[in-house]
Specification:
The protein is α+β, with helices and mostly antiparallel strands. It contains 5 helices and 6 strands; from the N terminus they run ββαββααααββ. α2 runs antiparallel to α5.
Amino acid sequence: MSNNDTIPEGHMRNAQGHLVPISMVRDIDQERDRLVRDLVLSARDASAVLKHLKQLAFGDIAAFVQLSAEQYEVKIGGDKGNITLHSFDGSLKIVRQIQEQLTFDERLQAAKALIDECITEWAENARPEIKVLVNDAFQVNKQGAVQTDRVLSLRRLKIQDEKWLRAMDAISESLQVVGSKPYVRFYERVGDTDQYRAIPLDLASV
């Protein structure tokens, strides 16, 4: 049990779950405990504020998109798509992005087999950079998944080999949208320039 309300007065609970009289706890350990609890409580409050801001932003942006569409007597899904909104003077902007989560189905294996055949056939004539790029593209990340952006980057290579082109088609056809993740970011203009800086909302950026 970790709820402080269940701890008898004059005691503290240690990491093993045992009750220890406060008189037996060193002053520095008590101070550390107070510091951690106070800061974590503040962090929880800040997290709740950010959660409310996120909900408010998405709700209000969706409502505004619908309001704007109604000027043309149409109805659209206000929570879909990428949107950029500017203040009237252009000094502030909000960007809502819907990032699609992509993955590949079993056809990616066929694409990899075709690519391997290409490299084998090209043998000594194959540029070493292409070999490195291909090997890098099909490496898995820590979660054991192929990174989609690396695989998709192969399609930018200007190779007209018929087998290679079939492999690129297989890559395209194996791509599946499995979900989406919404983001909202806030920006303010830097002085009188046309550049914007993001308003940081995470501890690492402030």
